[in-house]
TrEMBL record:
Annotated keywords: Kinase, Pyruvate, Transferase
Database matches in Pfam families: PEP-utilizers, PPDK_N
Protein name from the UniProt record: Phosphoenolpyruvate synthase/pyruvate phosphate dikinase
Species per Swiss-Prot/TrEMBL record: Serpentinimonas raichei
Taxon lineage: Bacteria, Pseudomonadati, Pseudomonadota, Betaproteobacteria, Burkholderiales
SUPFAM superfamilies xref list: Glutathione synthetase ATP-binding domain-like, Phosphohistidine domain
Length: 545
């Protein structure tokens, strides 16, 4: 691969290049200053690249430009993009071998799903044939193009997502969109282009540089979105930190059965158990998993369909924990059997998991005792308790009153939660303000619901993965969370939910068992079971011995 020329004398101080053996200035030291300047996501990408892990090249526009995003465009197009293209061996907008990129946010403090991402930037009518020749995969190319048009319309154009979603559902005719062939996707893509022009009053931009400039500014702008603002206020994050923007060479998880996208935790973030915890979706892109709009599969599917990638992922998990000294939450893509890493960060976890992970890492000699103490200093004995359903007495009367199991779902956070049904965040907030416990029931796990999530007892969704951004946020807030409940049907017009023959109106009560992944009718009794062994281990850590 061609190396970039040495730009040390003229290289902008707020630009960083990842993926070259000749790092640009300011990307050289993994210091606190560089973390704040380039954001946590890029800082960890740089660390992973230097560990020899498979990270696609990236150009990082620093947090400096958050309040004046237009100021980033001169350094971006005045030398940064040229150096990045040289590292990638491709050019943005090249009709024969086009560079296709993702544009992502990356603040100095992790804010899962609170800002915007655009994938497949650089695709247009002129570059599509070139990507087709490169990949030999017409289905992937048309799928990537239609995804770009729809996401660009929403994130950059400020258009509603619903018209594009309606067209997608019409094209799918009830089937999984991954079953659409290239001809169907081409037709859908052309319909998207027509829809974009109709709704935006102008054609979809066909200049890849125009796409990139607008995407960069939109991602910076998402730092000030209402959901990001709510998240910062909830967690005491300084608005002045800003976000970086990462322009990264695309890797495609939607190239067929030997590809896919996923999110993993190096340990179970609910219990702290030292097992790899993965959600994976074959023939998909990363947003399919983290958006909360798709159900995903566990590691067994990945291990069965792509054993080499699974083996590589296990080694990556060990490397990340060893080098970074904490449980990691990472995103990955598999393209034609090859594993690529797109992100790692310290994973959000429950209080009980926080205790076990810190203790396990300390006892294994991976972190110092003082570090383990600092990570558990906020925990109290009541935090190290498992909630369970109260056992029945076992007599005939109790058996007759056995709880009614309604459905099963994937558990993103353990515990037990009971509350009345709310189908929208506005009602959930109103009822919780009145002192009523609430279960928020939604079709998708959405980060836009963050204000309601912090107030309710639990979240139940029809679609979504355990590692969707909203599920991660719910777990961090300690909320019981069940996702991907395929037996759930929501009727927004009638304000009801149904599980098979059983129908419930808004205001009626459900219980979520996050330990077993079960939805029950009514409010059920709960008992707290202290995790005595874990409490003793924590006490020993805190002792002066």
């Amino acid at each position: 691969m061609k190396k970039p020329a040495n730009h040390a004398s003229a290289w902008p101080r707020h630009l960083f290049l990842i993926g070259t053996s000749e790092p640009m200035p300011k990307a050289g030291k993994a210091s606190k200053d560089s973390l704040e300047a380039m954001g946590s996501k890029a800082w960890h990408l740089l660390r992973m690249a230097r560990l020899g892990l498979p990270v696609p090249p990236a150009l990082v526009l620093g947090t400096h430009y958050t309040r004046e995003p237009a100021e980033s465009l001169l350094p971006l197009f005045g030398g940064g993009l040229t150096a990045f293209e040289a590292v990638c061996g491709q050019q943005l907008g090249d009709a024969h071998a086009p560079l296709i990129v993702s544009v992502r946010s990356g603040a100095p403090v992790s804010m899962p799903g609170m800002m915007e991402t655009l994938l497949n930037v650089g695709l247009c009518d002129a570059t599509l044939p070139g990507l087709l020749r490169q990949s030999g995969n017409p289905r992937m190319v048309w799928d990537a193009y239609r995804r770009l048009i729809a996401s660009y319309a929403v994130v950059v154009g400020g258009l509603a997502a619903q018209p594009f979603e309606a067209e997608r559902l019409l094209a799918c005719a009830g089937a999984d969109e991954r079953t659409l062939d290239y001809a169907q996707l081409r037709t859908l893509c052309r319909r998207y282009l027509e829809l974009y022009q109709s709704l935006a009053g102008q054609p979809f931009p066909q200049d890849p540089r125009e796409q990139l400039a607008a995407a960069v500014q939109a991602v910076y702008g998402s730092w000030f979105s209402p959901k990001a603002d709510s998240y910062r206020k909830l967690h005491g994050i300084d608005e002045g930190l800003g976000t970086a923007v990462i322009v990264q060479r695309m890797v495609f998880g939607n190239t067929g059965h030997r590809s896919g996208a996923g999110v993993g935790f190096t340990r179970d973030p609910s219990s702290g158990e030292p097992t790899l915890w993965v959600d994976f979706l074959a023939n998909a892109q990363g947003e399919d998993v983290v958006s909360g709009q798709r159900n995903a599969h566990g590691h067994a599917t990945l291990a069965q369909t792509l054993p080499q990638a699974w083996e590589a992922l296990q080694q990556v998990a060990r490397t990340l924990e060893h080098e970074l000294g904490d449980m990691q939450d990472f995103e990955f893509t598999v393209q034609d059997g090859h594993l690529y890493l797109l992100q790692t960060r310290s994973g959000k976890r429950t209080p009980r998991a926080a205790a076990r992970i810190a203790l396990d890492l300390y006892e294994a000699g991976q972190i110092e005792r003082q570090t383990a103490r600092e990570r558990t200093a906020h925990l109290k004995a009541k935090d190290l308790v498992r909630q369970q359903l109260a056992p029945s007495a076992g007599d005939s009367a109790a058996d007759a009153a056995a709880p009614l199991e309604l459905a099963r779902a994937s558990s993103a956070c353990s515990g037990i939660a009971s509350g009345e049904i709310a189908l929208d965040p506005e009602r959930a907030i109103e009822r919780t303000r009145a002192g009523v416990p609430v279960i928020l029931v939604r079709q998708d796990a959405q980060t836009e619901d963050i204000e309601a999530l912090q107030r309710v007892q639990g979240l139940l969704t029809q679609r979504g993965a355990r590692t969707a951004h909203a599920a991660v946020v719910a777990r961090q807030l300690g909320k019981v969370c069940l996702v991907g409940c395929e037996g759930l049907r929501i009727d927004a017009q009638r304000q009801t939910v149904a599980f098979g023959p059983h129908e419930f109106a808004v205001g009626q009560t459900l219980t979520l068992d996050g330990n077993q992944g079960i939805v029950y009718a009514g409010a059920l009794a709960v008992v707290d079971v202290p995790d005595t062994p874990l409490q003793r281990r924590l006490q020993a850590l805190r002792s002066n011995a």
